[in-house]
Amino acid sequence: MITKNEKVQRVLGGSFFERTWLWIISKVQFLLLGAHKDKNDVTLLKQIRKERVSMLTAYESYTILSTARSVKDLAGDMAEVGVFKGASAKILCGLKGDKALFLFDTFAGLPANAKEDGNVHTEHRYTCSLESVQQYLDDYDNVHFFKGLFPDSANTDEAELILADRQYSFVHFDVDLYEGTKACLEYYYPRMVSGGIMLSHDYSLLRGVKQAFDEFVSEIPEGLIEFPSTQCMIVKR
To answer: CA angle at residue 49 from 204 to 95, to 5 degrees?
Structure first.
């Protein structure tokens, strides 16, 4: 649910009611987008939403599309931490060109809350199997999957062989929790190219995500860019 009430978030998060609410919001937003945005973009996002359940609104999906497209000519690969059913990953697959896309998820749902998160989420919420997402994105080349809790999943011997010395032009975070968001920022910030974007879901909605960003931004030269949706981003100088 798009509310900061943590009792409501815990009860309804991931439920039929949350999905229905996001579907209603997105129906309205797609109508508005269709009135002034490129019709091919709107059609693509609507098609992806038909194919896969997504916890993003239509506007949030469009923000991923627009921001990732803005850096497509920069050097550096793309990544996403928090893949769920692969809806946002498919947007990135269509934009990445010859770049590699690295996808990280537990594929077993959320881990436990930290104290910074409050009592918001239940463990294993937003579960989707690795095999399901791999099948969904099977048509795209140079897409790599990493199963497990980030950043441990990026630090195995096997992962390090693939990820060593990589730099990134675009990374999307959708991990919902303080510890995961903090780990994403610490891992990717030094690996971003100049002009590269780190975009996150849930900044203005989930207190753990907001705290992780606010703490991190207080120690770097870049400022935080907040969107009218729940999203925020950092552009690397």
So the answer is: 80
